[in-house]
Design a protein that fits this description.
330 residues, TIM Barrel, 9-stranded mixed beta sheet, 35% helix
Length: 330
């Protein structure tokens, strides 16, 4: 090979490397949270079921009764009650998440499980009981931290089961997130029928998530409601991974919310703060969930906050707003 050919080959090689370097630099600059994302933000707090009793997640399965494995109680609040929600707001929460089951008399009861045996002194399915019957139950009956030797919340939950309407009325100017627990479109239609009676300004403060079928039922009737399911969140993130390097936010990511496990956030273009800024501009909330995400793991202790990105200005999912608020808002 002549020296002239070698020189030309080297020039082409360096030109190619220069183009690649420029492209990589441009990609970094366009998606650098450090260079372009907002700084100095403070987290917004989503209180999962108000202030709840927490429990270790090791060995938890879909059918595990978590009430029988709680940590020794540091408070007397029972999840999904108005008193626990009020305590969370008083502690500094910005939004409350709560669960919904439909009763035998077609009422929207605020309760987590589809059956009663785990947490209460009742038996059978929630949907097989009337609201009046459910109100007579003790919501704290089944909670124990020592394998059943003691039940510290027993007797403290009688008559505390609220309806969705009562929660909305109790917190008229606050952000609420409703979890449709069963993948039944009829339950989504029932919730949508109630939400449709609310004025537009109140509806703007309420979000819905849960199973795909009921969430679709709500979204189809009330497209102005921020609604999300596992499918909508997956569709958004897959599309964003494919195109987000350009700064484009796909339509699937607009006017919704993302419950994003913190360990997967780093995969997102512009993570963390530029990603949050882009989604906020698309009217989408980014809610950071601790760990892998399948069991609604919250940022509940000071040690949990070590995994939160610096200057995080999105949402944090917590079961203990009373513990976390003073740590993130000194």
């Amino acid at each position: 090979m002549s020296s002239l050919k070698r020189a030309r080959r080297f020039r082409r090689l360096w030109l190619t490397l220069g183009v690649v370097l420029l492209a990589v630099t441009g990609l970094y600059v366009a998606n650098s949270s450090a260079l372009r994302g907002s700084e100095g933000g403070r987290p917004l707090l989503l209180a999962h079921r108000g202030i709840a009793q927490t429990f270790p997640l090791d060995g938890v399965l879909n059918d595990t009764c978590t009430a029988t494995r709680i940590h020794p109680p540091e408070h007397s609040h029972i999840e999904n009650t108005i008193s626990s929600m009020r305590a969370a707001f008083d502690a500094g929460a910005d939004m409350i998440e709560f669960d919904v089951q439909v009763t035998a008399d077609n009422q929207l009861a605020v309760f987590h499980d589809s059956t009663l045996e785990c947490r209460t002194d009742g038996t059978g399915r929630v949907r097989d009981h009337t609201l009046a019957e459910l109100r007579r139950l003790d919501l704290g009956y089944g909670y124990t931290a020592d394998g059943g030797v003691t039940y510290p919340l027993r007797g403290k939950g009688v008559g505390l089961l609220p309806t969705v309407e009562e929660v909305v009325a109790a917190f008229p100017d606050r952000e609420l997130l409703i979890d449709l627990k069963n993948d039944d479109p009829a339950e989504g239609e029932r919730l949508a029928a109630y939400l449709a009676t609310l004025p537009a300004e109140r509806l703007a403060t309420i979000g819905v998530y849960g199973g795909g079928a009921p969430v679709d039922a709500v979204a189809n009737r009330l497209p102005q409601v921020r609604a999300a399911s596992e499918k909508t969140m997956r569709d958004c993130l897959v599309r964003y991974l494919a195109t987000g390097w350009t700064g484009h936010v796909p339509g699937a990511c607009r006017h919704t919310e993302l419950h994003l496990p913190q360990r997967y956030g780093r995969l997102m273009w512009g993570w963390p703060n530029l990603f949050v800024d882009r989604m906020r501009a698309a009217d989408t909330r980014v809610i950071l969930v601790a760990g892998d995400g399948p069991w609604s793991e919250g940022f509940d202790r000071s040690a949990d906050l070590e995994a939160v990105p610096a200057d995080w200005s999105g949402w944090l999912w917590t079961n203990r707003a009373d513990v976390i608020t003073p740590l993130v808002r000194p």
